[in-house]
Amino acid sequence: MVTNFLQKYQLQNHQLILPKKQFITYALYALVALAFLHYLLFYPALASGKSVVVAQVQEEVAAVVSARVDAPEQLLPLPPPPSPNQGDKALGNRQAEEEVPAPPPCDYSDGEWAPEARPPLYNGTSCGTIKDGQNCMAHGRPDTGYLYWRWRPRGCDLPAFSPEAFLRWLRNKHLAFVGDSLARNQAESLLCLLASRSPPELAYRDGEENRFRRFVFREFNATVSVFWSPFLVKVAEKAEHAGVRHNNVFLDAFDERWMSQLGALDVAVLSVGHWFLIPGVYHDGGRVVACHDCADLNHTETDFFGVFRDAIHRTLAEVTRRHSDGAGKKKVVALTTFSPAHFEGDWDKTGACPKKRPYRAGEKGLGYTESEMRKTVVEAVRSAADAAGAGSGLRFAALDVTALANLRPDGHPGPYMNKDPFGGGGAGDRRVQNDCVHWCMPGPVDTFNEILLQTVLR
Ligand SMILES: *[C@@H]1O[C@H](CO)[C@@H](O)[C@H](O)[C@H]1NC(C)=O
Ligand SMILES: *[C@@H]1O[C@H](CO)[C@@H](O)[C@H](O)[C@H]1NC(C)=O
Ligand SMILES: *[C@@H]1O[C@H](CO)[C@@H](O)[C@H](O)[C@H]1NC(C)=O
């Protein structure tokens, strides 16, 4: 049945530009894969040993990843391996460059990946806050070429990350990441980057699930916290073990777990998107206004773009309202744009995201879903900035990472979300779980934070 579906799909889809309808169908199926991943990654304790779940989603997921649209692709060649001397010199340079001058406004959204000889600021053993599933090095990923790239914007320069400059800026300040597991991925990347200069201390965490954490860099009295809030607005999350496969999202209620902390924040980095692609029922004013992937419920099926736009716009409007109501210390509100996934083979085989180097600029176009999700955030930021006005002390910015992330099929954990996935012999035909959504650390997600640094310094 899956095979038939695939054959039909592939026959229909030789052209690169698909009609919107088919993209939405694709997205519909894609969300199953994402649902599985989120289930797996956010509830690791529950997921272990849940082979039933694996079996259930396997068929649909196999359909998704094979139904992808193949763009002609050219991968960049691997850069030459750095010589040991270059590494040493790089460290020296980095210290010399610690004074990062305020740069002219630069469009970081468009550019290409260029070879970089300098090693990352941290590795799988030097940083203690890497989530297990993203520690590709410690989990035995054998290739290292994916570590030696830097993002080169088309018209300007993106300076290397300076932990010193970031921590000095963050002195006596509080930065919070708010969002889903991609927000957490970016938060943990920032913690590792900063830890290469000064060790963070875990000051708070809410039990085992790690939904809310706060870290303090004592030397700088700088605080970084992480809030779990996958829709930004209020949600009753799905509970698959209890047979609830839809998130119930309340567009007219805010998620006070983070919203109530707004007054204490100097920077909020909001990053959501992927959870809108998984099954959801959306409520507004006591009515169901949208339903995504809900053939089994008695609601009319809608796409998720409208409710995504709504959730973002309402959240930014509320941030502005509370700010002008007196929660008002000077504040930067940055939104990370959609970060594309790169499933390409069978999701449970070795080759789900097997590429070992980036795409060349322009060789891999953005999918329809990714492009719409990105655009929604960029436009919401623009209109929130217009509405807040200069002089409000509230600055909105987009961390426009969609294009640069789209070009990094090589940056995901893939099978190395688990330790030593091929232990005890060749990969062969063995089934393994693959994560082609989140990012290895170190990896391309560190670039998100290079852009964040330039954004707060501006
Ligand atoms: C990781 O970094 C630490 C500290 O910089 C270093 O001692 C160690 O050799 C590195 N490990 C790898 C695998 O590169
Ligand atoms: C430390 O930082 C917090 C913000 O996170 C600030 O409220 C507090 O005043 C700072 N402490 C000192 C001694 O400056
Ligand atoms: C769905 O709607 C139909 C017709 O209105 C009704 O007969 C049926 O019981 C409803 N099913 C559920 C699960 O509410």
Automatic annotation (TrEMBL):
<keyword id="KW-0333">Golgi apparatus</keyword>
<dbReference type="Pfam" id="PF13839">
    <property type="entry name" value="PC-Esterase"/>
</dbReference>
<dbReference type="InterPro" id="IPR025846">
    <property type="entry name" value="TBL_N"/>
</dbReference>
<keyword id="KW-0735">Signal-anchor</keyword>
<comment type="similarity">
    <text>Belongs to the PC-esterase family. TBL subfamily.</text>
</comment>
<keyword id="KW-0812">Transmembrane</keyword>
<feature type="domain" description="Trichome birefringence-like C-terminal">
    <location>
        <begin position="158"/>
        <end position="454"/>
    </location>
</feature>
<dbReference type="GO" id="GO:0000139">
    <property type="term" value="C:Golgi membrane"/>
</dbReference>
<feature type="domain" description="Trichome birefringence-like N-terminal">
    <location>
        <begin position="105"/>
        <end position="157"/>
    </location>
</feature>
<dbReference type="InterPro" id="IPR029962">
    <property type="entry name" value="TBL"/>
</dbReference>
<dbReference type="Pfam" id="PF14416">
    <property type="entry name" value="PMR5N"/>
</dbReference>
<keyword id="KW-0472">Membrane</keyword>
<protein>
    <submittedName>
        <fullName>Uncharacterized protein</fullName>
    </submittedName>
</protein>
<keyword id="KW-0808">Transferase</keyword>
<dbReference type="InterPro" id="IPR026057">
    <property type="entry name" value="TBL_C"/>
</dbReference>
<keyword id="KW-1133">Transmembrane helix</keyword>
<feature type="transmembrane region" description="Helical">
    <location>
        <begin position="23"/>
        <end position="46"/>
    </location>
</feature>
<feature type="region of interest" description="Disordered">
    <location>
        <begin position="74"/>
        <end position="104"/>
    </location>
</feature>
<dbReference type="GO" id="GO:1990538">
    <property type="term" value="F:xylan O-acetyltransferase activity"/>
</dbReference>
